[in-house]
């Protein structure tokens, strides 16, 4: 994983859990008992809903045909009796705002489950990106509580889990949340009260801790799990499944809480990585130690070439945990556009301010960058020299050897860019260097999230439009270009918002890209 990558946004979402730079996933399940809408739905638990949603999405995988799996097809399948309840649409509605050109619903839902389980005290599940969203419903086949054991064994086998793994996976799911009377009146009765309007009965006494109590209570006969000791034996699927190996698995889970956590980590990892056979997942994320965050280069109104953004530093060591960011030397050294470290651009300490952020996986600090470059020398890449305290020798972060590549050829200009509303023009402004030979076919590629019939997951729609030469810019070394467009060929509704735009140009025979520019902040007047 070398920066920049198509997974940068997801890797940030994985690594930055709370605070500055976080996109709010972990906040949706913190504390673990939090209900949807930031806590407005008594008796419901987002962490449990996300996990159940991921399982129901995956459960229609067919290991013989390779079809189905974690592909967000659940969005098109919520009308099926096997998908009873509002959890699925509530979950997709939470995540769809976070979808981008590079972040699919299936990937962000999976990431949500990984973060939720960790935040509830569960295992650290390795996360791999690359899931592709389905565009229509897949086959049916999610297990239902009234089905006999043989049917469940056959269904799990088709999903890729043997009978022992089935026991584990069900226990690993039914440690969070519970059964709601309004959705499963055949399993729960008499539970609806003013305080418990949906009549939830939890699977175990720690519904908001990812622990082995589902097993300990089963073994010591104190369980109130409605699928275990429910009044209707037909829907007591947990009872049939948990006992199906003469209690071997549940006994082990009850006796050894660490074994429960590690086994669940393995089974859930497999569950979350069960994807259609034509999908290839990327490598497991290991947070990058040093990574640029929203670093951009642009001209300010007086013609200064400004480098602005942040550097993220992540670590899992004791030194990382003990570090005081105010005492951390963090320096950016950039190479000019000819590949040499310019005498004028030797080590420059970042003028940083500490911005608080936390990670579920380690210690995290941000350092802000705000400095000016000489446009004629420009920039081609940079390295970061840093240490956890001012006494220690500096370490050089060089992005796997080549430095962090950074081009100064085609630059997005927030100034002069604006977003239109329904049926109105939006404008994107850019500057392109004019001292490097001919500029040919510059274009803007913009992607927006659009609602789609049948699912609350958004689909991403991408369009290209020409960047048109617009004369001089604030700098004599750059020319101005603009693209004026109306999204979706004439319609940008309330359900559609631009999630990224890339600027591309061939300059002097080489292609340069300014990728993943942020939202257009200013409305066009
Ligand atoms: C034979 C297999 C399974 C059956 C029959 C089954 C059935 C059920 C039922 C009836 C509910 C109650 C839903 C509600 O009232 O909102 C439920 C909840 C839940 N299930 Fe399963 N389940 C099975 C396997 C799994 C697996 C493998 C997982 C995940 C690994 C899982 C995760 C959950 C979670 C987290 C909840 C709680 C949802 C909430 O509180 O909103 N289930 N399950």
UniProtKB/TrEMBL annotation:
PROSITE patterns: PEROXIDASE_4
Plant heme peroxidase family profile domain: residues covered: 103-312
First-level EC class: oxidoreductase
A Gene Ontology BP annotation from the UniProt entry: hydrogen peroxide catabolic process
Keywords: Heme, Iron, Metal-binding, Oxidoreductase, Peroxidase, Signal
Manganese found in the keyword field: no
Family to which this protein belongs: Belongs to the peroxidase family. Cytochrome c peroxidase subfamily.
Protein name: Peroxidase
UniProt GO molecular function: heme binding; metal ion binding; peroxidase activity
Role of this protein: Destroys radicals which are normally produced within the cells and which are toxic to biological systems.
UniProt keyword annotation of Transmembrane present: no
Enzyme nomenclature, EC number: 1.11.1.-
Matches recorded under InterPro entries: Ccp1-like, Haem_peroxidase, Haem_peroxidase_sf, Peroxidase_I
Listed PANTHER family: HEME PEROXIDASE, THYLAKOID LUMENAL 29 KDA PROTEIN, CHLOROPLASTIC-RELATED
